Amino acid sequence: MPLSKNDIKYIKSLRQKKFRQKYNNFVVEGDKIVRELLEQRPDWIEALYGLDKWIHELPPSPITATAISQRELQQASLLKTPNQAIAVVRQPKANWHGLDLERQLSLYLENLQDPGNMGTILRIADWFGIETVLCSPNCVDVYNPKVLQASMGAFLRVHIATVSIKEVKKAYPALPLLATTMDGANVFEFDAPKAALVAVGNEGAGLSEDLLALADRRIAVPPNRNSGTESLNAAVATGIVCAVLRQAGL
Questions:
Q1: Pairing with 67, which of 61, 117, 149, 180 sits 20 to 30 Å away (CA)?
Q2: 13-41, pLDDT tens digit by residue?
Q3: Does 95 map to a domain?
């Protein structure tokens, strides 16, 4: 059965945050990520579409996929280069209460706006086994298609929730909040705590004064003395900090 015009219109509407919020759904595209979705979170899937050849190569699954043509895939796709499959996915409940944050390393993203950075940081968290990434209310939407593509499937494995830093500190007063700043302590010489929430700020403005006032420590990735670069990309800095803290046993 071909995709109707309404189906295509609905799928394409999920490119926009207001419609993702209205329907509480988002779109996942591409062979690799859709296969991971089927394997790890099949209960999230509301509808699945794919090219006939792609469907016939799938392993057994409780999810029934609808075959569509290459033309229909191109019409419905949110990508410049459509890739074999599209899934309409229900947004999981993003509850941050009751998380065991005081025994692990977690991330807090404040006002991050670049979808590529957001997705890459989720991928970094997944790589280092960081289970939780919390986002301020003004962060780019985690279900933005560009975020999902950049995450390389990490959004399936990392618990993501939106909450203000004041609420987090109130709920977890003993949890050390480490603020990444340009003037912080050298992270390579830092005596890491047994658990921490590492805050990463906006690409241009950095962390807010409100968050910095709540921080227990400030940490930094120091430049080489001959460096002429003003600052590090947010995702790059996050990757370095996570690697160092993991190496320190956090």
A1: 149
A2: 999 999 999 999 999 999 999 999 999 99
A3: no
In angstroms, what CA-CA distances link 126 with 32, 46, 68, 165, 221? Answer: 16, 25, 32, 22, 21
* Segment 132-158 mean pLDDT: 96
CA 80 – CA 50 distance, rounded (Å): 17
The rounded mean pLDDT for the chain is 93
Is there a contact between 147 and 158 (Cβ–Cβ < 8 Å)?
Answer: no
Asked if residue 121 and residue 70 are part of one domain, the reply reads: no
Clarify whether residues 76 and 115 are in a common domain. Answer: no
160, 220, 234, 197: CA torsion to nearest 10: 0
pTM as predicted = 0.93
Spatial CB neighbours of 23, under 8 Å, sequence gap ≥ 6: 10, 14
Q: Which residues contact residue 5 at a Cβ distance below 8 angstroms, ignoring those fewer than 6 apart?
A: none
Give the model's confidence band at 81: pLDDT under 50 very low, under 70 low, under 90 confident, else very high. confident
| Whole-angstrom distance, CA of residue 231 vs CA of residue 204 | 10
Question: Which of 69, 90, 111 corresponds to the end of one domain?
Answer: 90
Would you tell me how many other CB atoms lie within 10 Å of the CB of residue 111? 20
